[in-house]
Amino acid sequence: MIGNIDILLNLLSDLFQKKEIHTIMKEVAEVSGYLWDRGWAERNAGNFSINITDYYNEKELEGLSSYPFFPLPKAYPAISGLLFLVSGASSRMRKTAKNPGGNTCFIYLNASGTAYHIIGGERVGPVAKPTSELAIHLAIHQMLHQKKRTEKVVLHTHVTELIALTQLPGFDNEEMLSNVLFGMYPEASTYIPGGLGYVPYLLPGAEKIAQKTIKTLNNHRIIIWEKHGCLAVNNTLTDAFDDLDLLAKSARIYFMCKSTGMGPQGLTPGQIAEIKSIV
Question: Which of 133, 151, 161, 226 is catalytic?
Answer without folding.
Answer: 133
